[in-house]
Amino acid sequence: MRYAELQVTTHFSFLRGASSAQELFETAKILGIGAVGVVDRNSLAGIVRALEASRSTGIRLVVGCRLDLQDGMSILVYPTDRVAYSRLTRLITLGKSRGGKNNCILHWNDVVAYADGMIGILVPDLADETCAVQLRKLAEIFGDRAYLSLCLRRRPNDQLRLHELSNLAIRFKVKTVVTNDVLFHEAGRRQLQDIVTCIRHNTTIDAVGFERERHADRYLKPPDEMERLFPRYPEALRRTIEIADRCKFSLEELTYQYPEEAIVPGKTAQESLEHYLWECVPNRYPEGLPPEVLKTVRHELALIQIMKYAPYFLTVFSIVKYARSQGILCQGRGSAANSAVCYILGITSIDPSTNDLLFERFVSQERDEPPDIDVDFEHERREEVIQWIYKTYTREKAALCATVTRYRAKGAIRDVGRALGLPEDVIKALSSGMWSWSEEVPDQNIRDLGLNPDDRRLALTLRLAQQLMGAPRHLGQHPGGFVLTHDRLDDLVPIEPASMKDRQIIEWDKDDVEALKFMKVDVLALGMLTCMSKAFDLIREHKEVDLDLAKIEQEDSKTYAMIRRADTLGTFQIESRAQMSMLPRLRPQTFYDLVVQVAIVRPGPIQGDMVHPYLRRREGKEKIEYPTPELEAVLGKTLGVPLFQESAMRVAMVCAGFTGGEADQLRKSMATFKFTGGVSRFKDKLVSGMVKNGYTAEFAEKTFSQLEGFGSYGFPESHAASFALIAYASSFVKCHFPDAFCAALLNSQPMGFYAPAQIVGCAKNHGVQILPVCVNRSRWDCTLERVGNGDRHAVRLGMRMVKGLAAADAARIVAARMDTVFESIDDMWRRSAVPSEALKQLADADAYLPSLGLERRDAIWAIKALRDEPLPLFAAAAEREMKAIAEQQEPEVALRQMTDGHNVIADYSHVGLTLREHPLAFLRKDLQKKNIVTCAAAMNARDGRWLMTAGLVLVRQKPGSAKGVMFITIEDETGAANLVVWPSLFEKRRRVVLGSSMMAINGKIQREGDVVHLVAQQLFDLSGDLSGLADRDTGFRLPTGRGDEFAHGSPGSSDSRDRPKPLPEPRDIFVRDLHIDTLKVKARNFN
């Protein structure tokens, strides 16, 4: 018997279905089901995944949707042709526009207006009068396209219910059809389906009641089983195939048309592109195009014409042109940097002729898919570009892609644990022990938490959480992937409002868009471009130097010297722990070295075992051999090691005779070979081609293995070159203008790898003076203030650093003091009219001390007294009436001042950093008694020395390419130390590694050139030592006379000239949440 399952819900009916489309289609194939109708609720979000599952299994997809109407009626609708599909997408868009994010409001009248060309199946509950009314309405509108679903509910008298429904259908001349209302692919998923129901209703399995499915039958069944379950309704079973045959529409019919807004009137898209191209040539080549570039441009233009991609290039060009006209920094990256056309148009900044990049990596005839151009914009001004796109292309034709927010380990454990009723402290303990999203929890880790791994409910939580991982939770908004069309976009895909104001998204993500070969323009945000723009503004304002990305001096020796020292904190791309460790070994001296540096610290070269051979050859420790001159021409720049995706493609083209398109197909299959195995079909062609061209079979096999080893993670050279440009520019500004760089970086937060405290500490190490937040000197942003008579400038911290302070309140304060500085808190309150809460936030940040001389407690005391005084409005009225108001004098109170340790805690709590002593300076004597050395002493120790050091945990990293090794950075008052924690120790001391704010490490120093690590053997949690910090006092005053006489300590403390020379300035860390007497450090964790 033939049977099609027409009512299948995937997990894209968020928190309803419990199986993916791939699982459902694979099971359908095994069971012999002829076709699968996917009908997610009020959504087509999962339909492209269903199409891909259909492609891979050969089981036909019937496109459909379940519409739940506001009157309680539910119908399954299936478009029979392309026009009907567009009606469906418009109908869903209408409902989403009313319902807002994650909601859809539709009425029967809406269905009536869009029903043409659709098959409708009523999903009834009981054969009562309500069902009769609904069935009559369905029959009137859908006619011979109306059906009634017969589905088992597993209730008493179920067969009688089916009989009554069948009679009702006969009464209204509507045909019946059997459906199974599938929610999961096999019976074992019933428990997970109950759990997602609990999550959706925000309840527990003990309280969910009849909201859960009453039976476990909601899985796919073979045709024979369906025939056994519905023996009285053979015609209804056969109609499943009839409906599937009537639904001729396939998503493959969707054809994308490029927008035409950027085309020059009277010209074709290709002519318009060439017009703008030759118009832009003088900007890049004032003396005309060199012959080799002209040849490249003609080759690219010919291919663009063949592939009909000219409208795409015009669209991106128009966006970039607008941004530049508004003074918004932007730069294209990715495979687009392989294009001379993109370079001349100003979309990218990498000259592919001088960098020998490969256009086929960007566009190839064999690939037959749209190019992908990513453009980065200043992250604080990107919204201007986004709104311009909406205005230019209209909201009917433009929307952002969605992102699918999926469950990871911590979220899965939290939601499943709550659904199963686990105590909150147990859930928190379990989730805090997770590191990577796909990780299982070993029994020993459960025991380490004081829990019993044999507990049934706990074991069930872990098992179901593992099943839930990877399932979609909800749709989010892509960072900037725009889909732009010639006609209405909602003819292709439903559109819904985004959570952000004035934005809208389609229901498909970037993978769905790519699968259907739609054009996507990535309008991305890059914090470093914002930082660079602000730095250039500060440099122009205070140093009278006109600088931008194009005017930065190339190949500056001082900049490269700083990079080689790994003094790159805060710069772009080369600031991470791994990059800093590699810099002293690779020792970049040219721009191409920097390109290699950006790309080499990636999983691809590491997995392909290419890093160490490259470094050995660069250092002259390993001989470079090229079997043929052709291979030397391809890999000469990378010393015979294929570091980039383009390298793999060139090897295939030059050594094995691949065409450009075939080489790109090889690259793509290598990128997915772990999942599809598609790379094997290229092996014979590559190996035989190389042998034919004179290479040995052994060398050819080795070459293929090497390319296969890194292909899935390979980094494009064009992408690395684009990033290297910004990396160099940020390093140049840091090297020559460290004050402006520090201020700009602080003003661009949140961004980057490091918190403000580390940025400030690094600036101090570069000789930059940092001035505290001051109510009379600070603006909202951090600014530069001239120091002395020279060109030196100090960085004044801005009021943006004060936790909780509103920008509007800061603006009122700055405006009120334009003519005269504030003389007191009372004066400031009256003139600025800001609420007392804002005044207190500034007091918590110690912002009254620099100019008004008020300590934190004195300032807060004065602010509290303001509440008893007349409000400014009444005071002004009294003055106008010439009436004197007797001032209420508070008696002077000698408040006990906070200790230095307490002040440090308050600094971290309310500013995120301290300009006082580092927290560990207060604990140093105690640590010395335990033979714990400073971080600086540890990093300067000889190779092989055993020692113990301690510090605040700044960063934890566990890269996927590190085979389970954890890298940790700690810090004390002397600087930072880099730790290596082997997997065995990590598992043994997981709670210490993941939970410590302050950690002590006993281990062995490992030194390789300028790269130093402490390989941990023992780990100890010293977080408790921070709890008494508020009671600590250094017993001396910190240095005074810097900037605006920023005095520390209490009156009567010893003269700073009598104390020993202070330790180096601290590099502190950002703390989001701490109690007033306890320093709680929140480290940054990176996979």
UniProtKB/TrEMBL annotation:
Its main location: cytoplasm. InterPro entries: DNA_pol3_alpha_NTPase_dom, DNA_pol3_finger, DnaE2, DnaE2/DnaE/PolC, DNAPol_HHH, NA-bd_OB_tRNA, PHP_dom, Pol/His_phosphatase_N. One of its GO terms (molecular function) is DNA-directed DNA polymerase activity. Residues 1037-1067 are annotated as: Disordered. It holds the Pfam family PHP. Residues 4-71 form the Polymerase/histidinol phosphatase N-terminal domain. This is Error-prone DNA polymerase.
